[in-house]
Amino acid sequence: MILDMRNATSNAQNPSPPLDVAARIAQQTLASRAPDYSSEVRRLLDAGREVMRRCGTTSRPRVADIVAEAGLSNDAFYRHFSSKDVLVAAILEDGTERLGSYLTHQMAKEPSAEGMVRRWVVGVMQQAADEDIAAATLAVLWNAGGALQGSSAARPSASDPLAVLLVEPFAELGSSDPELDAILSGHAVVGRLSDHLWAGTHPSRAETDHLVGFCVRAGSGPAVTRRR
What we know:
This protein has about 230 residues and is mainly alpha-helical.
């Protein structure tokens, strides 16, 4: 066998060897199946959310219930998720990303920082006003809580990824620490949303307006004390 010295030189300069035939074919196979796998994951996420919504906070669905709803097999489920708990975490993340995209779109309609904050607060609190969304969100949170019992895993935060959207308007409002103020405001508003979800109540217009004022004040610069 003739040794290709050009490849030998190249390998000496780049310690990472090129993929062999088996690895290249495996990558091509995965690439060709990516759309199908993405579709499977989406069906499992949506099916999991729907089954949990129907079960509410009285029972937790089995993997068999979720794959039946999705019209898939157990093999398809375990191809993407090692357990139902991992699926629940993915559903939480997916819902947070969807809400974040919606809030970003709504905030982009406002020219002022205060208007952006209002859009953010209203968008978050609307999750408790829509009965179907509220029921699904509560069910997923309940399932996530059960999954974390006795676990050393950190509690996933739904507020922090959403609070990031407040950093820019808070900086414009004059906050001395927009990142921290955004996190604190995010915990306050999402926490209040959680209160409504668990109580099965809807936020009033007056409460939402109060939360908007609270966040605007939190994100504004320090108040100036007037001397008498």
